Amino acid sequence: MKKIIFTLFVLSSAVTLHAQTNPEITLLPVPKSISLQGGTFTLKSDFKVSVKANQTDSILYQAVNRAFQTLNRRTNLYFEQQRITYKDSSDNSTFIIRVKQKASVTLNQDESYQLKITGKDISLNAVTTTGALRGLETFLQLLQSNASGFSLPQLTIEDAPRFVWRGLMIDVARHFIPLDVVKRNIDAMAAVKMNILHLHLSDDEGFRVESKIFPELHKKGSYGEYYTQAQIRELVAYARQRGIIVVPEFDMPGHTTGFLAAYPQLASAPGPYEPGPRFKRSGKKLGLMDIMTLIQTTPTPAFDPSKESTYTFLDKFIGEMANLFPAPYLHIGADENNGVSWKNNPEIVAFMKKNKLEDTHALQAYFVKRVSQILQKHHKQTAGWEELLSKDLSKNVIVQVWSDSSYLRKAIKQGNPVIISKGFYLDLFMPASVHYNNGLIPSSAPSNILGGEAALWAEAVDKDNMETRAWPRTAAIAERLWSPSSVKDSEDLYLRLFSVSNQLDEIGLQHRSNYERGLRRLTGGEDIIPLKTLTDVLTPIKGYKKLFAKMTAPLSHTYQTAPLTRVSDIVFVDSEIKRSFRRTIGNYLNHKEANALQILQEQLAQWKENYPHLEALINRHAMGNEVAVHAKNLYEAAQIGLEILAKLKTNETLSPEWIKQKQEALNSLKKADGEVELAIIPEIEALLNQKLAPEPLDYPLF
């Protein structure tokens, strides 16, 4: 199959390309520039690495050894060199790494590097340790193999990031995510050159860090699921070794049940408080407007900003956490506080009147100012979600935009540092192409836009599906934040995305194994192939539909202990099979490729012939209700596709009446069931209409 990643003419002389590679180079993120010389460097067992850097740079030497062993495992060459130390500094080695400055990762650090590969040797040059770490990840992605062995393309790469803040926010409060899972995500982040891990550590559902000063926080706020301080130090060190900063978030003044379960005297309304969902379920069916009214009118738990004891507590608490997390930033949330519990408290209302605070927005601004002063005292820069923005907000406070793009314009105008998360919410189940084409990331960004952050909220995420929900889509966001703005072809992205997904699987990420484990659970341990043939082309419903359904589900469905094991909980958002099917249809419709029809026929026949096997499996297991509708729908869609191909093969004209009949049938197959939908219907429609329509740049949220 024709595979084009970027338009490329490889000449005998070097060709300099701006953010381009060739069909065999699946780099992600795409570097700033590449110069291809033609030819390859062949790897052999005598491959040897030298490092010319500060001999005490343990982060560098650990990274070099990790990369070296990864390469050894991928090639099975059994390198003669066992490990690399400061003693390995020969000028005669095949791979020489030169680093000018020993440095732990910081936000505005020089992350640039130059990687040069000739037919005889390789060199990696970087100003800082962090730049070398980024270059090593590029080096590993360049490995190629064929029947003759393993090689690397001859080239020169000059690379540096577009934005300094390239983050992933993981919500570990709503569902606790164990340390080993977070570490695997750090490894994946490092592989695609991300540098900020934002941990959402407290919310209404839980408080997830041990506090030695206020031990009731983790005792009463976590149901025993929290990180010890030793584990936090271990995690911070693990991230630092991979060029990643860990930024903690403790949400306040709202989303604070995790705090108030331990210290109800700090609340705006009397307790007791118990960690759990923010909104109490009535069990009755609610429409969209009912849910919006619930969100706006419920007196949700919040700190009492009128009490000095609140700030005394926060001073001590922040002081402890500031010592635990060395990052110069601390995120205070400050989102989604509707102010109802403040309005309902006469003492708070009197405080507002006394201090000439005209509404709860002004009171929140007062709270943010007080907390920011505490953070400044402990040498931390304040970050928060967009709701903390006010006209009097300190210019030093970082504003993270997640919902309303007007906040982006206001923050830029006020001169506040900005992080963009709107368009990067992974829990909205949008395909990677939507995140990749985020319109809020301007081609020419103002200097106070630090970058962006993928966000994974955990209402429908736990330790068993977290990696499947985050990856490989997060890699698309990583590229959007690293690569030049001219790199924006979604189809090209997908060609590289699934290749990188393979590499992430190889380094230990469990996004694929968790998916297949979930399928085995549904089949009771039977062969998963019939079920997987279907679920490989299912995708979760998009937007807030799944979350809102959860808000009105029976109470037992909302528990933190409730299983997230339905098909909608385990399938990928982006179907690799769908992408391949779509490319083949494009190759047939646009390029009339000779073998495309045959490939399409085989795929459609596979889906059709799978149905009897899947139907038998469904009839043997209780999971049948989960997939029965879509099992039949895929069969019918495949049948329609085969009928279309049969007519096309004989050059039979498709009559308008026949097209209308089949279109109506396909429309009925688009309907969601079990919170999932068939992903391949638009492609079969393309066959019917002989035109492959562009994919949407966005989808409705509600």
UniProtKB/TrEMBL annotation:
UniProt cross-references to InterPro entries, sorted A to Z: Beta_hexosaminidase_sua/sub, GH, Glyco_hydro_20_cat, Hex-like_dom2, HEX_eukaryotic_N
Residue ranges of coiled coil: 590-617
SUPFAM superfamilies associated with the record: (Trans)glycosidases, beta-N-acetylhexosaminidase-like domain
Record: active site: E336
GO MF terms, alphabetically ordered: beta-N-acetylhexosaminidase activity
Listed Pfam families: Glyco_hydro_20 (PF00728), Glycohydro_20b2 (PF14845)
Signal peptide (from-to): 1-19
Glycoside hydrolase family 20 catalytic domain sequence ranges: 163-484
Documented EC number(s): 3.2.1.52
Domain (Beta-hexosaminidase eukaryotic type N-terminal): residue spans on this chain: 27-142
This protein's UniProt keywords: Coiled coil, Glycoprotein, Glycosidase, Hydrolase, Signal
Reactions listed under catalytic activity: Hydrolysis of terminal non-reducing N-acetyl-D-hexosamine residues in N-acetyl-beta-D-hexosaminides
One Gene Ontology cellular component annotation held by this UniProt entry: membrane
Enzyme class: hydrolase
GO biological process, one term: carbohydrate metabolic process
Family as reported in the entry's similarity comment: Belongs to the glycosyl hydrolase 20 family.
Protein name: beta-N-acetylhexosaminidase
Lineage: Bacteria, Pseudomonadati, Bacteroidota, Cytophagia, Cytophagales
